[in-house]
Structures are given as structure tokens and as C-alpha cells.
Amino acid sequence: MPFIENGLVLRHIEVSRDMYELEFIAPAIAPDCRPGQFVHIRSGLDNNPLLRRPLSLYDVDKKLGSITLLYKVVGKGTNLLTRIRPKEYVDAMGPLGRGFSLLPPRKTALLVGGGVGIAPLVYLARVLQQQGCKVKVIHGVESRRELVALGKLREIGVEFLPSTMDGSAGYKGLVTDLLLKKVNPADIDFVYCCGPEKMMARVSEIARENGIAGEVSLEEYMACGVGACLGCARKLKSSDAQYKKICKDGPVFGMEEIEF
Ligand SMILES: Cc1cc2nc3c(=O)[nH]c(=O)nc-3n(C[C@H](O)[C@H](O)[C@H](O)COP(=O)(O)OP(=O)(O)OC[C@H]3O[C@@H](n4cnc5c(N)ncnc54)[C@H](O)[C@@H]3O)c2cc1C
Ligand code: FES
Description:
The protein has 260 residues and is an alpha/beta fold. It is built from 5 helices and 16 strands. A 7-stranded antiparallel sheet has the order 4-3-7-1-2-6-5. Strands 11-10-9-8-12-13-16 form a 7-stranded mixed sheet, sandwiched between helices. Strands 14-15 form a two-stranded antiparallel sheet. Helix 4 (175-182) runs parallel beside helix 5 (197-209).
């Protein structure tokens, strides 16, 4: 069940240019959080902007009752969010949405992130690792300064391969080319993906060609965040009769459910 609470900010730091990590205490929300779900954040104090902004669970510490977000500043809401200081409060609603399915122990998961789409995959990596899965993460970015999840992924202890478009770290080029060159499909039981739609489309295609099932997390403009307004409605396939609500039926969907 989702809760709304004012979370005490423990940490709020710029981890790279225009990218922030925000950790806050949310004792009502944190216990029920699952990887792939999101929180809906009010970024301004005076209801301006009026609408909350959806941000994925980047990490959750259930013992401490804290939630960490990783966000990129792109507009008014995320800009205002940067002003919140430690010891102040952030207005959060959650956990919301349908998260990732979790693989059984001893299976191997491939997590493919593009840009800030790495955010929900980090908490997923932690939970899969904790329950005994083998986890490989590949992350594509423009330049090495965007490889902000590296520290957390090292701490979790998963295999990590980066790709950068400018060649400043790891493989030079697209993360999908890295996937084709460096990952043996025979080693993978399931693929999880989050990032730009073009990238998710290609990853889904590669998975399908190799007979591997998987899930993607979609990004859509949201208003209520709880399935009440149709603000995020989308037909996943042109042949679908009905619209899906990304906030409630998703944001995570099976790769086979979507026509990109
Ligand atoms: C389920 C979900 C989880 C998300 N998780 C994260 C996360 O962990 N970290 C993160 O940095 N961002 C995440 N996002 C995207 C984030 O919600 C938007 O970047 C944010 O709402 C932008 O708000 P703003 O007021 O700063 O920008 P706005 O002023 O609203 O928009 C600025 C620019 O961003 C574009 N934009 C805004 N929202 C979206 C959207 N939902 N999809 C595509 N383009 C958009 C607009 O077209 C515009 O060009 C997530 C989105 C969804 C739906
Ligand atoms: S944002 Fe209102 S139904 Fe999804």
C-alpha cells in the first residue's frame, strides 16, 4: 500500500554534473519497496510545479528505513529538488507501480542500463545478488563522468561492464554493441533493461533472437501516479484494444508485451 510521508533527508550530493543522489528516511514507504517500483516526489514547497515527479528506487536500506534516489536535472521539478538540504524534508509518495519479477536463486541475470536508466537496476542488482542469483550489469553512457553507479555496484559485488560513446571508459560505442560482443547469450537466463526506448527496443530484439525472456521499465509522463487520471496511458502494441496505465500496470512490462 502506498504512503505519503515527509522523509528526513540524510544525504543529498551532486555525484556528477547535473546528477544527484538523494537519501531520505521513509519508515512507512521503505519496508514494502521492491526493485523497479518508484516514488512520486513533490519537488516544490508551494505546489509549483503542482505535479509530483516519478523517480525510481535506486537503493533501499530496509534496516535503516531509508530510500536513495539517483536523478538527472532536466527541468523545473528536478531543478527545484536540488535545493533540498540534509536535515530538511522531502515529500514522497510510494512505493508505486509494478516492479521487476525476481529470478530464483542460482540463475544468471543480465541488467542493461542506458544513462540514468541505471537507477532502478542498482536496487534490482542488490536484491538479486542477496537472493543468490549471478548478476552481470552493463551500462552505456556518453562519458565516464556519468558512470555514477560504479561505487554502489562494486559494493554490491556484481560483474560490471561499462560502455562510453567517447571511449573515456570501457567499451567505446553503444551498449547494445557491447552486449553483442562481450556477453554470451548462453550464459544468461533473463534480461532486465531500462534506458532510452531505442536502446530497450534493440535489447529486446537481441533477447528475442536468442530466446531469452526479459523485462523493461518504461518512462512516461505522469500526473497522479496511482492509476486515477489516465495521464500515463499508452497502447503497448498497435493491435492492443486497451491502453495500459504505465504508473499502475507498469512501469515494468515483459519485453514481449511491447512493440517499440
Ligand atoms: C517510472 C519512472 C521512473 C523514473 N525514474 C527516474 C530516475 O530514477 N532518475 C531520473 O533522473 N529520472 C527518472 N524518471 C524521469 C523523471 O521523472 C523526469 O526526468 C522528471 O519527471 C522531469 O521533471 P522536471 O520537472 O525536471 O522536467 P520537466 O520540466 O517536466 O521536463 C523537462 C524535459 O524532460 C522531459 N521529460 C520529463 N518527464 C519525462 C518522462 N517521464 N519521460 C520522458 N521525458 C520526460 C520533457 O520532455 C522535457 O524535455 C523516471 C520516470 C518514470 C516515469
Ligand atoms: S499518472 Fe494518472 S493514471 Fe498514470
